[in-house]
Write a structure and sequence with these properties.
single chain; 139 residues; mainly beta; Jelly Rolls; four-stranded antiparallel sheet; disordered N terminus
Length: 139
Amino acid sequence: MRVSRVTGAALSGVLATVAFGAVPAHAEGSKSTYISYWATSKESGRWHDGNNDGASTTVRFYNCAAASSPGTKTSAAITVWEDVFGPDTNKGQKSDVCSSTKSWGRLAEGDYYFSLDKINGTSGQGTFHLNAKPVKIAW
């Protein structure tokens, strides 16, 4: 009987640890996608942040290249928007998402997307087109 009580107590401790959140926090959601021949002002697909955790919203582009010159270093600036009824809410622009992961902090529950604002510092539509794969989004 003693063995089964000890085993039961250990199992209860593991279940309590999992149930009460004493495990490492992970992002509520994430997705990996890509960008192919995007001009400035193009918008990403939407994602829903239920704000069920303390994770920040982050975006990172990998292997960025201007379609016209694939071998050169390319930078990109994006803005994250909250998709709301009426004009969407600007959550801030971050530059050079091609060189490092950028964070918008913890955002409230809502639907979000990003727009491509600049490629190599230029915002003129049709001036440059961007390719990036993968594009990683976490929230």
